[in-house]
Amino acid sequence: MSLKKKHQNIINLAGKYLRETHKNYSQVTLVEKLELIGNKVAESTLSKALSNNHHIGPIALETIAEGLETIMQYELCLKYNTETETFEKIPNCTEEEVNEELFPKENKGQESIVDIKAYPDGRRSITKKAQFMSAAQEEVIELGLRLRNFTYYFTDRNTKQYKSHIVKLLNKGVNLKCYTADFEEANTKIYFEDRAKFDKRELKKFNRMSEVVEELEEVIKELREQKLEGNMTLHTYTCLPHMHCLIIDGDSPEGKMLVSHYMYGIKRSEIPVIEISKKENPDLFSKYWQSAQQIISTSSQKF
Question: Counting CB atoms within 10 angstroms of each CB, which of 10, 74, 94, 144 has the fewest?
Answer without folding.
Answer: 94
